[in-house]
Write a structure and sequence with these properties.
Blueprint lengths: L1 E3 L2 E3 L4 H11 L4 H10 L6 H9 L6 H10 L4 H29 L2
Length: about 100
Amino acid sequence: MIKSQGMRTPKPGFGRLLEIYRHNNWMSQTELAEALNRRGFAISVSAINRYESGLRNPPLDFVVSASACLKLSPEQESALVMALFEDYSQKFWRDYKEALEKFK
């Protein structure tokens, strides 16, 4: 968590962080998709859009390839991986709670 004037604000999720890093590199979603495809990672612009909007979580090899395309520092790549892990964890717990409710 980031502290701001005594209040805690949540860290950005994976999608928002990916979008920030992409914008910092002056890349559009289309340009990122093209760069990933050139590196051998087949992906569509709509898939990147779903990742950034939080509708889908990407596989880890996407994070590695996107980090290389965006020329992220090791710290930035780690932040992206941790954000993805947190998103997966939140989804896991939501799914688990839903499953528990079904059997009560």
